[in-house]
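Submission sheet (multi-component)
Chains listed below:
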Amino acid sequence: MKDIIITLIIIAVKTAVYFGVLLLHVAYATYFERKVIGHIQMRLGPMIVGPHGLLQPIADMVKLVFKEDIIPAQVHKAIFSIAPFISLVAGLTTFSVIPVNQGWYIADVNVSLLLVLGIAGIGTYGIILAGWSSNSKYAFFGGLRSAAQMISYEVALGLSIVGVILLAESFNLNEIVQKQQEYWYGMFLFPQFLAYFIFLVAMFAETNRTPFDLPEAESELVAGYFVEYSGMRFALFYLAEYVAMFCMSSLATICFWGGWTIPPILVKAWPWLANIPGIVWFLLKVYFHIFLFYWIRGTVPRYRYDQLMAIGWKVLVPLALLNIVVTSIIKYIIS
Amino acid sequence: MTVKEILNKALMIEILKGMQLTFKRLVSKAVTIQYPFEKRKIWPGFRGRHAFVRDPFTGKDKCIGCMTCARVCPARCITIKREKIDNKMVTTEYKIDASRCIFCGYCVEACPTCALVLTEEYEYSAYSRDEFIFDTEKLLKNWDDFVKKWPEETYFNKFWQPPGIDPNRWPKTKKDQTPIPLRGEALIKAQEQKQSQAQKEEKSETSNS
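Outcome: structure written.
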């Protein structure tokens, strides 16, 4: 009994620290985004609050928390109030199995990759329910689009990872990272470049980011599924989106970039690289993907709805299937 | 489709080109001017808040009530009332409605005595419309504010000599206008000159009597 309580306390502390740090990263991801987008447009981004606007996320948070939480009269109140929490909780839960360093994780699940994909899919429910319960045309369309988009791109996302699973022979994220160390190049990025490309595109669609941000297309749907939301609930949706971005970036890092490790060939060439803690590499790789999100948001305009569907079903899914077939054949021949 | 086009599409050349451009912009310097903290340089000929030039020697404005500015104003925002006192024209009321002004600067160009100017001051937002109706007092105060704010020892004649117009075509009054000193050494020198002149006149007057 005593052991159980102690383990529970350890897990609780671990979770609190892990998610505290994660949410801090998420808060500053918004700052990072505004800076990157600003500089791409030759602006400066936030500059007033704190030195170089460093306290801007905190100011935003305080503002959103103290804003009035308006629940419109025509909405389905229960679902309307629950929807943002579904999104956020789904986003945060995926992080419970994502290892950020050697042995730095909350839970080591055997099928963690499947768990991440499954829970990330649940996040869509939050969006759909929010859109539906809002009783508004724009929100409804946002929700519908989100549902269609998620279904089509979840397929491509799942199929693109199958190549990695074939090579790693495991669903466990820790084992996937360790498996990559057995090759001299240390990353599945090289044999699985096609899968990585598909994963990247599907990643953008999964997190509703530009160029696939149809569920929240400002120019046509005002804000999409969260038009009717305000105050803290609105902030939760935002938070969920950024957590999802971090989740997908971490997944890409772990599956294709070797997680917290660096290629053995580099360590051989410069042995001092091995002294740098793994979390640094992990964060660098994750922030590269986060930067990629912003960079593409600053470059590529939004796709049309039919183009989105065509890319998903006519390009990505066949390519992913081709990748699986080729990978399996090569793996069979080699082994 | 040719092979090249297919390759272009498959490798997303266009998108990569776009991303290259945005990355170049990302690392280049931002063009933002952080307005309340840093301000743009004001170019000569800028037309800002209206002011009456305060003659440093008499302490009054130089308006003679000729009505030229009111006549030339396309927005009809200048109202002048004048009276003949002792066979001399005196303006009793001079009003500019700055909220209707279009800042064309015609009034300044037309003014024969160079009494009215448009200063370089542009931050004068207010909470009521009444504050934008400038009468003589307010116009003189605007001038004082302007002189206080711009610390250079400048001669304030660049505003009433319209740029871009051949100086030969200026009216005679504009051509003859000598620059008036605003502040600093130039003003002190001018005042001393004036004083010594006045003293001389007094002396000659006393000696005459």
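Remark: Chain A touches chain B through 14 residues (CB under 8 Å).
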